[in-house]
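Q: Hi! Curious about what Bardet-Biedl syndrome 12 looks like structurally. Here's the sequence.
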Amino acid sequence: MVMACRVINKRRHVGLQQLSSFAETGRTFLGPLKSSKFIIDEECHESVLVSSTVRLLESLDLSSAVGQLLNEAVQAQNNTYRTGTSTLLFLVGAWSSAVEECLHLGVPISVIVSVMSEGLNFCSEEVVSLQIPVHNIFDCMDSTKTFPQLETFSVSLCPFLQVPSDTDLIEEEHGLKDVASQTLTISSLSGRPLKSSEFFKPQAKVEADKNTSRTLKNSLLADTCCRKSILIHSRHFNRTDNTERVSKPDGFQEHVTATLKTYRCNDLVELAVGLSHGDHSSMKLVEEAVQLQYQNACVQQGNCIKPFMFDISRICTCCLPGLPETSSCVCPGYITVVSVSNTPVIKELQSQPLRIVLIEGDLTENYRHLGFNKSVNIKTALTSMELQEDSSEELWANHVLQVLIQFNVNLVLVQGSVSECLIEKFINSKQLVIGSVNGSVMQAFAEAAGAVQVAYITQVNEDCVGNGVCVTFWRSSPLDVVDGNNRIAILLKTEGINLVTAVLTNPVTAQMQIKEDRFWTCAYRLYYALKEEKVFLGGGAVEFLCLSCLQILAEQSLKKENHACSGWLHNTSSWLASSLAIYRPTVLKFLANGWQKYLSTLLYNTAHYSSEFEASTYIQHHLQNATDSGSPSSYILNEYSKLNSRIFNSDISNKLEQIPRVYDVVTPKIEAWRRALDLVLLVLQTDSEIITGHGHTQMNSQELTGFLFL
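A: Let's find out. The predicted structure is below.
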């Protein structure tokens, strides 16, 4: 399927234009109110419904070099974090356009790379002030009770970006502590104090808080997600190591100028609501899965003596299209689907404990594990190859049954595929075999049932066989859960198994993949929030702070003398120093425009603004207020701390009401920014190297025919 049509100007940077074109197709996926798309194949006229960046790129023509780079960046983000891909795609487009504008104005490529990397590092440091610690979530939890159900709240943005609404408000007694007092003072290129979070704070106050700042400096900066500003020429962008830090030039120092009063999120329901981003049904299932894991851990450990850790690898999904959404639930154990022809087998086995065998690979006659070397010098003297294959598979299948009967095995779980011939024999012998089982599921049954995974059926012995597994129909009436492929849902469980299955149902088959993707997105958001023990204030607050700080930084850079850069660039040429001084404000401005576009699109996608221009004007109004306040971070935090978070709405309410707070995961968001900028600068620099490289200058015009530059 082809991507959205766009005229490419060959006089400008083709690679950056292609990135912008790809990114344009995913604008509607930004924000909690996503709009699905139908992607139509021009050749066979088939269509597919998508509502995420990953599924969108799977349906587009990504055969170009730029398309493959973009796809690998998105896949790396998705495979690691399962969230942040829409942000990544949008920022790739926004910053590609920004770099194009810089090139159009004659900004040197080296300056673009340096200043944009510096600007993003600066943003990553600034947003530390919007981190909320997540501690002791499970300390006060009753392991014998279930969580209260997630209430359905209206989707919310940053308080001053709120869309006016008269419904779905709740009263909250917990107030945000005054985190607004946390500020950062940063020295500029000239060595003069450039105040980032509180840009215009009196110097007297800075001196008064000097002692406090030294104490808080290390603890604050320890949480930063920044890394070195180095463009990695990698096609994978799969970097999860956050231990590297940005090395700052001499004279660039940070000071915390006030006592930090930290607001802590220590309630799982509040955290789950904040991370649901409008998808409350999926997050409710995730929350219930966490509760089941917690209860199981308490039973195994004895009232949870050890700290509980949410293990996302022990959650699996079972999709049942055609059933109403109200049938979605979470159950302990392993729920999967098998052919309806297995119904008599299930009825036979459900009243007895089963002995289980776990097969790591395929359960087929010709399966060989990785590294197996086929025997050589074997000659076959048989006229009919078909007769030979049929005979060998039949003999092999009979041997498998003999082994299982010998050890009284009723149930076989196979990680790979299962021979069709063997499946029929299993049904006739009242034995159950299930293929394509996830590796985590296999490990869970191995631990709980005492089984040992083997590669071949011939390796099975008494020590490898597990005991005590039960099988039953998921519902009392199996015919109620038969899907369109004549499969029924069954439940496998054993005592003490650390495994939870989320059953996902939807009456519309085309939306089944969407529902599963959204479930995993919510699950990974909660997982990383609990793992990192911190979250961002969400709803656009982080991006708004980046926009505010970059604009102020650009304005202050504009006022600097050219020689002010000497403190930063003592190891560089005078040409680069003067270029940075001249172009730095311009590049920072265009980098900030990317955040402006992000927030404008975010608001426009809520359908409360007639155009992105209107949304942009609304943001500009509050941007000016944040600048006038002298401290953008304080401006944001103060609005979050107020009981009436809708203070900037035209219909200000006199009631002390507040909509639920929105949270974002920290590392996945920062990584999405990093990967987006890395990709844009990689395409920019690769194209520059191809055009200006030594090898290119030696080619004649005939040799250049057929070359396609990025």
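A: A fun detail: The longest helix spans residues 574-604.
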